[in-house]
Amino acid sequence: MTGETCPDVFELSDGSFAVIGTDRTEELDALLPGDAARADYERIVVITRETLIRAKRDIPDA
């Protein structure tokens, strides 16, 4: 409603979470740890620490 375009984390109706952030797949893909992988349809999205901390109160523990 404010017109701001900032990162966000929100819960979908099926209980999954969606993240709006900066797509940095090309930059970070080669830097993934050896035990991490992504499918071709997945992207590496970066959000700020502040965004995740603010979203924490809205994410259920279980």
Shape: globular
What level of helicity do the residues show? 10-25%
- Percent strand equals 15-25%
Low-confidence stretches: none
Characterise this structure.
- The protein has 62 residues and is an alpha+beta fold.
- The chain is 19% helix and 19% strand.
- The protein has two helices and four strands; from the N terminus they run βββαβα.
- The protein has helices spanning 25-28, 49-56; strands at residues 8-11, 17-20, 22-23, 45-46.
- Strands 1-2 form a two-stranded antiparallel sheet. Strands 3-4 form a two-stranded antiparallel ribbon.
- A hairpin with a 5-residue loop joins β1 (8-11) and β2.
- It is globular, with a radius of gyration of 14 Å.
- The protein starts with 7 loop residues before the first strand and ends in a 6-residue tail after the last helix.
- The mean pLDDT is 88.
Supply the key terms.
62 residues; alpha+beta; two-stranded antiparallel sheet; 2 helices; 19% helix; 19% strand; globular
Brief characterization of the structure:
This protein has two helices and four strands. With 62 residues, it is of the alpha+beta class. A hairpin with a 5-residue loop joins strand 1 and strand 2 (17-20).
Topology:
Elements lengths: L7 E4 L5 E4 L1 E2 L1 H4 L16 E2 L2 H8 L6
